[in-house]
Amino acid sequence: MSSASSQETILLLGGTGKISSRIARLLSSANYSVLQASRSGVAEPLPHCQGVKFDWFDPTTYENPFASSPISAVFLVSPMILDPFGPMKTFVDLAREKGVNRFVLLSASVIEVGDGPAQSTISKYISEIGVEYAILRPTWFMENFSEQQHLPTIRDASQIITATGEGKVPFISADDIAAIAVHSLTDKTPHNTDHLIFGPELFTFDEVTALLTKKLKRQITHVKISQEQFEGMISQFGIPDDYAKMLAGLDTFIKEGREERSSDAVKKVTGREPKTLETYLDECVARGVWDGK
């Protein structure tokens, strides 16, 4: 990634989220002007970063990012609904009217580009409307163990609860996803493709808990439950029922072996090897992530 003038603005939706916040840090260090869009309107305390209020469920906020400097590229993070095509198409069309010609969409490895749920249809739309684009399709994040649903169960109950059975996952670091996103947003030559983004090794959740047991020097157990039990568990966190059903179904995809695959996207796009799960776990242990409340 080359450095840029701070006059060149890149818009990050989901601006304070797991991937966009990492993208913001990388872009800021390369002197890109960054606009982080979120419901709070808060930006990272970094050079060249500003915040703007944006809410997928409030179309009156869609104009907000375009109120000041021109936007050269947009990083798209979908709303947490089963079919986000309507609001996302409305925003993409508006952005094009405002002069944006490059879009990078965060999707998922199990979501094909085409007609289907979640980001499938908007992926197809972006790839067919004549803009510069990239569709990022990462597998499960390593950070799910340290920043999301598995953090409290590992820390407080020495457990990881899934419906994945013995299925294997090529876990990927959010840092590697962000690095590919930055290249997709800033490379002179547009990627115009979908990137399947996997880590370098396959692990079952039993193998993950064995690694955690070794690193933390206490027994960490993988608790195997059914898809229906997992759906009920995540519904308790206020996730809409249809979206919870889809998320629980993704665990079944793992159980069926659908994530037992590999790719060279990180190396191909960034020029370096992806982070290993063991390196990631060592970093978390050094920070005391799972040491207790």
Number of discrete domains: 2
Number of distinct beta strands: 11
Q: In DSSP terms, counting alpha (H) and pi (I) runs of 4 or more, how many helices? A: 10
Per CATH, the architecture of the largest domain is: 3-Layer(aba) Sandwich
* SSE order, one letter for each helix or strand: EHEEEHEHEHEEHEEHEHHHH
How would you state the average pLDDT, rounded?
93
Termini gap? 39 Å
Percent in strands? 15-25%
CATH topology of the largest domain: Rossmann fold
CATH superfamily of the largest domain: NAD(P)-binding Rossmann-like Domain
Helix and strand content put the structural class at alpha/beta
Largest sheet: 7 strands, parallel
Read across the widest sheet, the strand sequence of neighbours is: 3-2-1-4-5-6-9
Describe the structure.
The chain has 2 domains: 9-138, NAD(P)-binding Rossmann-like Domain (Rossmann fold); 140-172 and 199-260 and 272-286, Alpha-Beta Complex (UDP-galactose 4-epimerase, domain 1). It has 10 helices and 11 strands. It has helices spanning 18-29, 85-97, 120-128, 150-157, 174-186, 205-216, 227-235, 241-255, 265-270, 277-287, and strands at 9-12, 33-38, 49-53, 71-77, 102-106, 132-138, 159-162, 168-169, 193-197, 203-204, 221-224. It has a 7-stranded parallel sheet with strand order 3-2-1-4-5-6-9, sandwiched between helices. Strands 7-11 form a two-stranded parallel ribbon. A two-stranded antiparallel sheet has the order 8-10. Helix 1 links the parallel strand 1 and strand 2. 41% of the residues are buried.
